[in-house]
């Protein structure tokens, strides 16, 4: 696979690998607050792209544009496009139903948030929303999703037990299984391991590594070692701007922008 070279200040390279999504000149405003400034970023398919940068630089804001979560609050405003491939749909288009976009993406948050239901019903939830109620279909999908989230072996004998009684790491993998059950085009992970211990973190990282064979993953992380371990591509953001983007190895070993280097070497600010 040929890979893009790094770039700086809103001129991302065009990867020759196929794209799952293409962020084009995106601006985002929380009311008066201009939180994303002219972001352009390719998202290569079946790969992991990490969003890194100091607190408040806009990583979560960008992630939440992909599933139109910002539409849930009044006063928020998008400009620009996020083109989803191969359909060529602009996720940010006012004519696109935000609910439809949420069904095409799966999102996992910093803190595990299982529903107070059984393990089975947590995973089946999105399927039932799509009016899939056939027991056999549900059973098969639930098993496949739990397998993909590397949780099946630990819960297969207690699918009817309450999800909130699982450990934090298991709950987080359950949330990934729930997100995967509806076969999303994009999996959005917002600091998914920040509340987990090293063993649970390592299980999630292994799972992400295996999952990218089938789904394109976008992850926000503060953990630089984690980005270096699991991301194929890395985007460094600062004050709402994309400062540098490229293959992870190149961003970490040979950053082109002094700001990126300062951030990665801990000499920032
Ligand atoms: N609901 C909101 N209303 C107004 N401003 C917001 C809102 N949410 C975030 N912001 C602001 O937008 C900017 C980007 O926030 P965002 O949460 O995207 O940053 P981040 O890089 O994900 O930070 P962190 O690493 O701390 O999670 C910040 O200045 C933040 O204060």
Automatic annotation (TrEMBL):
Record GO terms (molecular function): ATP binding; ATP hydrolysis activity; phosphate transmembrane transporter activity
Keywords noted in UniProt: ATP-binding, Nucleotide-binding, Phosphate transport, Transport
Gene3D superfamilies per the UniProt record, alphabetical: P-loop containing nucleotide triphosphate hydrolases
Gene Ontology, cellular component aspect: membrane
InterPro entries (alphabetical): AAA+_ATPase, ABC_transporter-like_ATP-bd, ABC_transporter-like_CS, P-loop_NTPase, PstB-like
Any one GO biological process: phosphate ion transmembrane transport
SUPFAM superfamilies noted in UniProt: P-loop containing nucleoside triphosphate hydrolases
ABC transporter domain mapped to chain residues: 21-264
PANTHER family the UniProt entry points to: ABC TRANSPORTER I FAMILY MEMBER 17 (PTHR43423:SF1)
The protein, known as: Phosphate import ATP-binding protein PstB
